[in-house]
Amino acid sequence: MKKTIFYEKQYSSRTRLLLILPILIIVLIAFSSIWLIRVNYTGKPFVLSSLPAYNLIVIAVLILIISTITIIHNSFAHLIIKIDEKGITATYFSIGQKQLKIGVKEILSYKIRKYSPYREYWGYGVRENRMRGKAYIVKGNEGLHIQLKNGKRLLIGTQKKQAIECAMKKLMGRENSNKNG
Fold this sequence. Notes:
By secondary structure, the protein is of the alpha+beta class. It has helices at 15-42, 53-75, 117-121, 161-180, and strands at 4-11, 47-48, 51-52, 78-84, 87-93, 97-103, 107-114, 125-129, 133-137, 142-148, 153-157.
């Protein structure tokens, strides 16, 4: 039976949703109002430099709808991190489920570090950056950075910095004791 050394369940920050969603709704209402007022009072579509404004509004509305769906989708995501004697498991839940399993023998090195989710990985979720590797993050700016023996790099966001560091010391200590014993 595997003994769990570390367990963390993180939910994404709903603050982003609460901040961005009203702004998107206000912009959508403003675009729609301008278009409706122009069409209803003049009988002609609003024209902005030869491209009818309603085309711009349709494009803006589509962008807003896609942005809103993405924000809502990410707002209900969560991440479960489990470390046991066999290795690390990170499971990201949203519409689907993505799971990452790393065996202790695959780990070359690790460190806890601060990161910038938008600058380094272009946001939250399961992200991949050619230079920095793969990331599993739902909130915050601290994570477990792992260098694998095959050259790949991973980042797993955490809200329990000291606890995950202790768990990794235990995990890697066991690996070192197994090599020596």
